[in-house]
Amino acid sequence: MMKFLSHTSPELFKNKRVLVRLDLNVPLDEQGLIQPTDTDRIDTARKTLDYLRDAGAQVIIISHIGRDPKQSLAPVTEMMNIPLFPLSVDKKKISEPVIMLENIRSDTREEARDNMFAQELASDCDYFVNDAFAVSHRPHTSIVEIPKLLPSFVGFQLEQEITYLDKIFSAPHPAIAIVGGAKFETKLPVIKQLLPIMDRIIIGGALANNFYKEQGYEIGRSLIDPDALLGDLVHHEKIIIADTVIVESEQGTIEKKIQHVTYDEKIVDIAPSGLNEFATMLTGASLVVWNGPMGNYENGFVAGTQKIIELIAEGESLSIIGGGDSVALIKQLGMQNKFSFLSTGGGAMLEYIAHKTLPGIQALDNN
Ligand code: ADP
Ligand code: MG
Predict the structure, then answer these.
(1) Which residues contact 56 (CB under 8 A, 6 or more apart)?
(2) What string of pLDDT tens digits covers the 367 residues of the chain?
(3) Residues in contact with 125: Cβ distance below 8 Å, sequence separation at least 6, in sequence order
(4) How far apart are CA 257 and CA 254, in angstroms?
(5) How far apart are CA 145 and CA 127, in angstroms?
(6) Ligand 1 pocket test, candidate residues 297, 305, 329, 342, most atoms within 8 A of CB
(7) Under DSSP, is residue 164 helix (H, G, I), strand (E, B) or coil?
(8) How many CB atoms lie within 10 A of CB 80?
(9) Whose CA is nearest to atom 5 of ligand 1?
(10) Alpha helix (H) ranges present in the chain?
(11) How remote is the C-alpha of 151 from its chain's centroid?
(12) Can you say whether the dihedral through the CA atoms of 355, 358, 363, 365 is positive or negative?
């Protein structure tokens, strides 16, 4: 049974040592510094940290950062104004109320699901809290092995994620999903899971190109996933795709009906005008769940995604948004307050929808 921090008396943690798994994998700029706009992961961890500290616990934070296992968490601890210790520190000798251990992935046993490593991490600790939703789909040592060793709790942010994402499974109608982006292998299981519970699924991004192609349209040089097997999704009545796109062509960037795309062109975005036909559907929806941008936004093709953001913001639906790229763009546009919930997970959100749980959540449930 899952134990939620929010339902637990702070008394339990008084003078106890609590190991807390967070995802403080914030982006670093060229100087290795954290930009003030990139502190979300630190901000969302605050509630759990404050709760435990105020309860009188000693908090030992574990996190990873960056792709390079040698990357230090020092920029994060500097910003949080807490000390940083090596993974092998003798925890009994720590006197500060909140500290962090170095990048957990600097030890290769983190990704190898290693019970010995979990024992080292859990040594001299009384409790474990997972508040790292964005990595809870990974069966890593700190996510799935530590909960076997210590009484374990669901942190505040993880609880929020579960609460909001579970609303998708009992969606109020009309319920609309919007799935964009490019990673087909992660999105296809989600589309299949969402089909029976949603009234409509709007497909955008590079995913839409696969649909256009299988529907028999010329898509030129557009990005597709050659391995995607759409099967009967191609003509599914609930799946809808805009009929107007933005293409890069010899005449520059232009808007076109899909049937007019030629072999030398490249579809880079869904045209806002093509999304107009979905406007009343979106503004009138009771629930909207959205993951993945409509276009190749890093190269400036943001109009389709921006239109989706505006339409969701205009309506009064319960709106649940996830995906690293989609959420980044919403923040860039300063629209984050227009939505009910922005998930901190990209891959984790997709896997949660596909499987209704995650390895890290299951580990807490079995605790
Ligand atoms: P998220 O991180 O939101 O889950 P993905 O990682 O699946 O989304 O996909 C985001 C990527 O999809 C972005 O790099 C974006 O440029 C790309 N993309 C979306 N539409 C297109 C398109 N038409 N052509 C090329 N790339 C696209
Ligand atoms: Mg992404």
Answers:
(1) 10, 13, 14, 15
(2) 999 999 999 999 999 999 999 999 999 999 999 998 889 899 999 999 999 999 999 999 999 999 999 999 999 999 999 999 999 999 999 999 999 999 999 999 999 999 999 999 999 999 999 999 999 999 999 999 999 999 999 999 999 999 999 999 999 999 999 999 998 888 998 999 999 999 999 999 999 999 999 999 999 999 999 888 899 999 999 999 999 999 999 999 999 999 999 999 999 999 999 999 999 999 999 999 999 999 999 899 999 999 999 999 999 999 999 887 888 888 888 888 999 999 999 899 999 999 999 999 999 999 9
(3) 17, 18, 19, 60, 91, 150
(4) 10
(5) 13
(6) 297
(7) helix
(8) 19
(9) 181
(10) 40-54, 74-80, 115-122, 156-169, 184-194, 205-214, 272-275, 279-283, 303-314, 324-332, 347-355, 359-365
(11) 26
(12) negative
- Residue 223 C-alpha to ligand 2 middle, in angstroms? 15
Find the 180 Cα to ligand 2 centroid distance in Å.
Answer: 10
Ligand 2 centre distance from Cα of residue 324 (Å): 5
- Which numbered atom of ligand 1 lies nearest the CA of 295? 20
Q: In this structure, what DSSP letter does residue 213 have?
A: H
Q: Is the peptide bond before 174 cis (omega within 30 degrees of 0)?
A: yes
d(CA 130, CA 146): 10
Cα→Cα distances 65→41, 134, 173, 255, Å:
11, 12, 39, 40
Residue position matching structure tokens 């009064």: 316
Ligand having the closest approach to the CA of 186: 1
Which residues have C-beta atoms less than 6 Å from ligand 1? 181-183, 205-206, 223, 267-268, 291-293, 295-298, 323-326, 346
* Atom number of ligand 1 nearest to Cα 269: 23
